[in-house]
Amino acid sequence: MGSSDLEFGELTAEHDHGRNLRGFAITTAFCLAVALLLWLLGIAPLVSASVISFSIGWSIQTLFALLRTRLEPRVGILITSVLLTLSGLLTGLLLSSAVLFGNPLFLLLDAPGTVLLGVIGGVCGYQIVNSRERLLNSRLEVAQLEQTRAEQAQQLAETELKVLQAQIEPHFLFNTLGNIQSLIHDEPDKADAMLTRLTTLLRGSLGNARSRSTTLAQELELTRAFLEIQQIRMGDRLQFSIATGPGCGQIQIPPLLIQPLVENAITHGIEVEAGPGTIEIDVRTEDGMLEVSVSDSGPGPEADPQRPSPMRSSKGTGTALANIRARLHTAYGHHGSLQLFALKPKGTRAQLRLPLDRTTTPAVTPEP
């Protein structure tokens, strides 16, 4: 049995215990009200009315507390309710008759009116208690469904992250290893620098794969390592800058949001031109939102036939961008967004906007 099964069992047992306590409390109040009503109407003395009322009410509630969870899965809710209510009525009448008259059958044989009142009172009491229980159970079921939905959404986000990593890492890793192999004899210093940054990137990526969130500073550190690898590979053709606003470093965000945007900028912006290019990463907070912009000096979306203009299509292109949008929707709903803008005279800017009130949750500690 797993830990989740144990936790569910403990939660169920705690709920059943609380339900029984609430049931006894409500039953006690109802029985007291019935006894007072019978006494005020002159139907029975207060002591007799109390003995009969409490005997019937507590008998019904006791049977429900002991047998309800055992019978309902076998015979259903309706049959269980009828059986336990009738059994509780009979037990209560026999008990109160024995206490008051010394004969368990006295009320059944010689006081049919009292029996009828007991039946009516017992049924009404059960309906009151059961209606409240149905309401409480409905609320519990809704809460459990919400929790299940949240867990499923988190699992979906983690799966999407792993899919995105699986799509990015092999291609990048093989290319980088190939570059290291080509540099190792002729330019060993560059090969060593590339290998060092690759180690940093892979170590951080593996750690993020087990976490639901990471700090912006950690994400930017991995992005910087990625850009430095690309800079060694491309030489003077690539320059980059990273600007971060005050207090942004410790903000928590989902992992692997920025690096795919940078790789997209290199692939569709810098590499398609022969001359030098730049990538600028700008991070700031404004109006309760975290804004992360990745801009490139490439030809822009209009010059790339494989990339429809982001000004005409809000969906963007490429699997990486689609996965990022899906993960943003899972984590932030409609409050998080990724947009692409054409720059003038050329270039493209990808802009992430995340709500600050949902980006400050501490990162989940990786599992060992």
Question: What does this entry look like structurally?
Answer:
This protein has 9 helices and 7 strands, in the order H-H-H-H-H-H-E-H-E-E-H-E-E-H-E-E. It is α+β, with helices and mostly antiparallel strands and 368 residues long. Helix 6 (188-209) packs antiparallel against helix 7 (216-234). The radius of gyration is 35 Å and the shape is rod-shaped.
Side by side, the strands of the main sheet go 2-4-5-7-6
Structural class estimated from helices and strands: alpha+beta
Task: Compute the number of strand runs.
Answer: 7
What is the average of the pLDDT values?
Answer: 76
* Largest sheet data: 5 strands, mixed
Helix-residue proportion: 55-70%
- The fraction of residues assigned to DSSP E strands is 5-15%
Query: What is the string of SSEs from the N terminus onward?
Result: HHHHHHEHEEHEEHEE
H/I helix tally:
9
Kindly provide the radius of gyration, computed on alpha-carbon positions and rounded to a whole number of angstroms. Answer: 35 Å
Oligomer: single chain
Which outline best applies?
rod-shaped
End-to-end Cα distance, whole Å, is 20 Å
Pick out the low-confidence regions.
1-13, 304-317, 360-368
